[in-house]
Design brief:
The chain is 16% helix and 29% strand. It has 513 residues and is α+β, with helices and mostly antiparallel strands. The longest helix has 27 residues.
């Protein structure tokens, strides 16, 4: 019975541990809560944050060395495009993987205002046009500071670009942001990486938070040590494709251009001709009807389910990069769903607009990077992008079912244990209160028993002189070998007598425990 109790307690403890694990592993905020640095530090891990009113992620960086947390720190950047920052204030900066240029703005869309004089920057007088994926900027080349991580990335050797004007077709682009940090490695930008030229992006499954790490941590984040894909890239982390295609089921369309990674993109971007072909393939091969729009078309399935939709395969010069349906679909409340991709072109507006430098590019967004853990590694002198498919955990309903099952079984086992403890075996004789009852055979005083059901137990007579039980002091005879075998004589006990535990042969009965 003690073993049953131990098992029941163990199961209850297991259920509690599972609940704690479920809360930590599958809580949408779990990844965010494990990162302690909210500003520029020296840890090599920078938190990626996301506002609800914008699509892009941001990091917090310092505009002067190690001044965050000083007494003059304020939160002026929350009021965008109106006030400058105090010295040492951390500011919200966007991240651009396919750019080497780090930009702040004097006048650019809805970006905050950068005061060059306040931070002691130096303008060289030359100008440069810069194309980011979603907007272009006319800038003045300057020298200034920017610290993303004091130990691993700081703009101390490269140029700082100050935007004088910008062009974008996205509504409120740059709102509540101070500028853009470029993570490319070309030219002097390679000196921004203080140690090895390597960083990685980990976006959580809800696509509302993540981390930028200056290392490859695939074994802990993705649960694997070997990459799923590895591609050679240029200094702005763009994969050049000379002969490729995009395939959906039996349909495919040719592609030659670049593949870029953009955590600020609000959908997977496809050049216009590829986008229209992909949508038509879904209509032809999967019984899917989609609305006629260039951005996230709403679709309805006539048969099957979303999970039955085929993978989209992007062939990059012989290597197939898989995009499963869980990445490119999102279910609506009314049962329909929308495709998580959009047509891109400089001739389109709003969310489908891209600058001319990215007009022939497939843009992989944060949703894609939540499914894969992506490492950008130039530590060997060559730029490689290593993509790791994250190991899958059981879905939450499996965990909840397991917890409920373990708890139910534990409670059931506890009930059975309690029931067995209270159960009394049936007997034909009831013993009332007994006092000073004497055993006829050995004058041993019987114990006092109150209102307890006691079974009648056969008792063998005892010979004090020979220290043997009667019936056992003679050699037994076995039936079939000796017809004279006699069953040992059994004596009935005195009324109410409780037989003591038998002692071994040859041991005095009065010493029995």
């Amino acid at each position: 019975m003690s073993r049953n109790k131990t098992l029941a307690v163990s199961l209850l403890l297991l259920a509690f541990v599972c609940l704690q694990a479920q809360a930590s592993l599958f809580n949408p905020q779990s990844l965010r809560n494990t990162i302690t640095n909210a500003h520029a530090t020296s840890s090599g891990i920078v938190e990626l944050k996301k506002d609800y009113h914008t699509t892009g992620f941001y990091v917090e960086a310092d505009l002067s060395y190690n001044r965050y947390g000083s007494s003059n720190h304020s939160n002026a950047t929350n009021s965008t495009n109106s006030t400058s920052t105090s010295a040492g204030e951390s500011v919200k900066m966007m991240i651009s993987i396919p750019n080497v240029e780090t930009m702040v703005a004097e006048s650019c869309e809805y970006f905050g205002y950068y005061n060059c004089f306040q931070y002691g920057c130096y303008k060289y007088g030359s100008t440069q046009n810069i194309d980011y994926p979603a907007f272009s900027a006319y800038t003045t080349v300057a020298k200034g500071d920017m610290y993303l991580d004091y130990s691993y990335w700081k703009l101390s050797t490269a140029y700082l670009y100050i935007a004088q004007s910008c062009q974008s077709h996205h509504n409120y682009f740059g709102y509540d942001r101070y500028g853009v940090i470029g993570l490319g490695t070309g030219g002097s930008a390679g000196g921004d990486f203080s140690f090895s030229k390597i960083f990685s992006i980990n976006i959580n499954s809800e696509v509302n938070g993540g981390s930028l790490l200056f290392k490859n941590d695939a074994s802990n984040i993705a649960g694997v040590s070997s990459e799923t894909y590895s591609f050679y890239a240029n200094s702005t982390w763009q994969i050049r494709v000379y002969s490729g295609y995009v395939q959906v089921s039996y349909g495919s369309v040719g592609f030659s251009g670049n593949v870029v990674f953009d955590i600020n993109a609000d959908a997977i971007g496809l050049p216009y001709n590829i986008y229209t072909s992909v949508v038509s393939y879904f209509r032809s091969y999967t019984s899917t009807y989609c609305s006629s729009t260039n951005f996230r078309p709403t679709c309805t399935l006539y048969s099957g389910s979303i999970g039955d939709l085929p993978d989209i395969n992007i062939n990059l010069d012989g290597i197939n990069l898989k995009i499963p349906s869980k990445i490119y679909t999102t279910k609506n409340d009314d049962g329909s769903f929308y495709f998580n991709f959009k047509a891109t072109s400089p001739s389109l507006t709003n969310d489908s607009y891209v600058t001319p430098s990215f007009q022939n590019s497939i843009i992989l967004d944060a949703r894609f990077m939540s499914y894969y853990y992506t490492v950008f590694d130039a530590s060997s002198g060559y730029n490689y992008i290593k993509i790791y498919e994250k190991s899958t955990f059981p879905s939450s309903w499996w965990i909840n079912a397991g917890i409920a099952g373990a708890a139910f079984f534990a409670v059931l086992l506890c009930c059975c244990c309690c029931s067995k403890k209270k159960r009394v075996p049936k007997n034909t004789s009831t013993v009332a209160q007994i006092n000073n009852t004497t055993d006829i055979q050995n004058t041993t005083q019987a114990p006092l028993i109150y209102n307890q059901q006691v079974p009648v137990v056969p008792t063998y007579s005892y010979d004090v002189n020979s220290y043997n039980y009667a019936g056992y002091n003679a050699q037994p005879q076995y039936p079939g070998y000796n017809a004279g075998y006699q069953q040992p004589q059994v004596y009935a006990p005195a009324p109410g007598y409780i037989q003591p535990q038998a002692a071994p042969v040859g041991y005095p009965q009065e010493n029995a425990k």
